[in-house]
Amino acid sequence: MRFTPVSWPRLTDALADRITALAPLDGAAWPRVVVDGAPAARTGELADALAEALRTRGRRTLRVSADGFWRPASVRLEYGHRDVDAYYDLWLDTGALWREVFGPLSPGGDGRTLPSLWDPVADRATRAPYVTLPPGSVLLLDGPLLLGRGFPVDLGAHLRLSPGALARRTPDADRWTLPAFGRYDEEVDPGATADIVVRCDDPRHPAWSQ
Questions:
Q1: The domain that contains 122 carries what CATH number?
Q2: What string of DSSP letters covers 60-128?
Q3: Which pLDDT score is estimated for 210?
Q4: Closest listed residue to residue 144, CA positions, set 58, 78, 47, 56
Q5: Cα–Cα distances in Å, from 8 out to 13, 82, 110, 201, 203?
Q6: 3-class secondary structure, 2
Q7: Which of 13, 78, 127, 137 has its CA 20 to 30 A from that of 56?
Q8: How far apart, in Å, are the Cα atoms of 104 and each of 26, 32, 56, 67, 113?
Q9: Is the dihedral of CA 185, 195, 159, 147 positive or negative?
């Protein structure tokens, strides 16, 4: 895979232009975009920048973060606070994401979506109000371990960190999650699954596969 150096602003503009031109392959009225990567890759920053860039292009967005659809602590932590397999398989409530986000934005959906369901810090429902998106609005979902789950993704961007960079940039308290990303690389191969890969070992000097 060949990577080209790029600045974050240029990358954001190029991705926003590409998203603006997206036509969902399944005929849905809402392009669905995923920014995937470990927390250390700061996927939310790119997704937020894309939302602003799309706004200036006249496109409404729905910003969703994966941790807004984590399961309650009683489920996430059933096998302990540092169970790698639970982190990989159980923390994200994929059923809720389908029900509240991807389903309403699929062909025949009504666009009535929920931006978040659960606050993992307070461990209670967010009580976020539903949002009805007009056709042409864009879903921007960010977070870790999102590819390879069968979601209808029209554009998937993976922020790639080498194992060494991931270890360096992950806080000590979260280093127990590192084996989950090794498993993700082996089972899903997000670098091959994503439409666009952004190499960001040095966050000041990203490079991307166009």
A1: 3.40.50.300
A2: -EEEEEGGGGBPPHHHHTTT-TT-HHHHHHTSB-HHHHIIIIITTTSTT---EE-S--EETTTTEE--P
A3: 75
A4: 47
A5: 9, 33, 34, 13, 9
A6: coil
A7: 127
A8: 14, 11, 25, 20, 6
A9: negative
Six token digits for residue 158: 């993976």
In this predicted structure, the answer to whether residue 15 has a pLDDT above a threshold of 90 is yes
Q: What is the pLDDT of residues 114-128, one digit of tens each?
A: 999 999 999 999 999
Question: Which residue is associated with the tokens 């894309």?
Answer: 50
Total structural domains within the chain: 1
Residues in the chain: 210
How far is it, in rounded angstroms, from Cα 155 to Cα 139? 10
The model's pLDDT over 26-58, given as tens digits with 9 standing for 90+, comes to 999 999 999 999 999 999 999 999 999 999 999
Query: What is the model's pLDDT at position 88?
Result: 98
Range of the domain at 204: 4-209
